[in-house]
Design goal:
The chain is of the alpha+beta class. The chain folds into 2 domains: about 1-155, PRC-barrel domain (SH3 type barrels, Roll); about 160-230, Roll (SH3 type barrels), CATH 2.30.30. The protein has 6 helices and 13 strands. The chain has helices spanning about 5-10, 75-80, 90-100, 135-150, 160, 225-230, and strands spanning about 1-5, 10-15, 20-30, 35-40, 50-55, 65-70, 155, 165-170, 170-180, 190-195, 205, 210-215, 220-225. Strands 1, 8, 9, 10, 11, 12 and 13 form a 7-stranded mixed beta sheet that branches. Strands 2, 3, 4, 5, 6 and 7 form a 6-stranded mixed beta sheet that branches. It is globular.
Length: about 240
Amino acid sequence: MLRSMNDLEGYAIRATDGTIGHVKDFYFDDQAWIIRYLVVDTGTWLSSRKVLISPIAIGHPDWAEKVLPVSITKEQVKNSPDIDTEKPVSRQHEIDYFGYYGYPFYWGGAGIWGGGLYPDMMMPDYVGFESIPHDEDREGEGADAAQHQHDDPHLRSCKAVMDYHIEATDGDIGHVQGMLVDEETWAIQYLIVNTSNWWLGHQVLIAPQWIQDVSWSDATVSLNLTRQAVKEAPLYNPAA
């Protein structure tokens, strides 16, 4: 199923020994269009420190109670690498984060999550996961980390993209109002576009495959579609 990113904001993150905090934002990969991290406000127990939680750790959500269970402890979160969520997340930060939790790197594989489609397939205890028991293999992993430590991970805040202008090939069609995310892969399947400046009272869905370019400096998303093509597409009904 697809879930609205706006609806997921505020969900509780429940560790194996208690609640960590609540979802405040998401970091997505602007090339693969996948949610890579949830930004979680820890509230009073950790002085409102904001921490990153990877979908790798998320188990079966309780949609009715708005809870996302994670297979980590509060103590692990408390001692996790400190990352300033107000600044871009560097690849070095990611390497430190993945090393701390013992996750394999998601980049470099054939799938959107390492060698697979789903983030939980990267958990060390996942059936079929190949562990790294030998010292020489660990050395190879360290060499891989060193090779990629200066990569640009292309991570963007979902909140920062809200209200970006959407441009068709022949004119403006509206602005980003939200995103629809696959609840299993955490891939962004559609941008929810409010067309009120052009087509009053309507919302449409735009798939990342239809995006020709994103100008982060101008806060504009350019499509390889005409206005008429957008107008002829099925309307988005949030209640459906």
